[in-house]
Specification:
Distance between the termini: 39 Å
Radius of gyration: 18 Å
Number of strands: 13
Shape: elongated
Helix content: 10-25%
Strand content: 25-35%
Order of helices and strands: EEHEHEHEHHEEEEEEEE
Oligomer: single chain
Largest sheet: 9 strands, mixed
Length: 214
Amino acid sequence: MNPHRVLIFTGGELSVPLLDEIREGDFIIGADRGALFLIEHGVHPDLAVGDFDSVTSDDMSRIHAASKQVVECDPIDKNLTDTELAMELAIEKSPESILILGATGTRLDHTLANIHMLIRGLHHHIPCSILDENNWISLTGSSCTVHNKGFTYVSLLPLTTEVSGITLEGFEYPLNHATLRLGQSLGVSNKLTEDRGMVHIEGGLLLIIQSKDA
């Protein structure tokens, strides 16, 4: 039976409040230090994956003991980051959605790579999002509903050179068949006026970032 949702806890910035996102029936993947974070807080991941080059041998023993399954890869001879490998394994589960936690942090290169990775889910018709304490990041190539998750702002940023035919419903600043191009800030710091809003686009890939100040 395919899981309703896969949660990936990876090795970026993780905090205890993010554990509240876990729901009954979720398939939980810990990527590298994300697996150790889960175990340290009493959560037994369904799958721990990575090269585990950022944990000690004692930590590795704990990961093996507390995880239902462990997939290790060579830290040198590998083509995928730990998060990317976790994403590939999550997609193989054919869930209804994937949520990645710990995908942002001080490494801007890793953060951007993880945001770009949302495209993989889109190609497999699986809605994917990234969550940290201040942001909920998702991606659309057509139409989607934006639910109010308690964040202050909703920003729309193109992930392709151009996103065309953008129409917004339920937002403070509506758009009607508008076009956003890389480098423009027109879509930044909008707000929902209802419990949910609708985003429709006709071409391109659009990041939808719900955010709040720290």
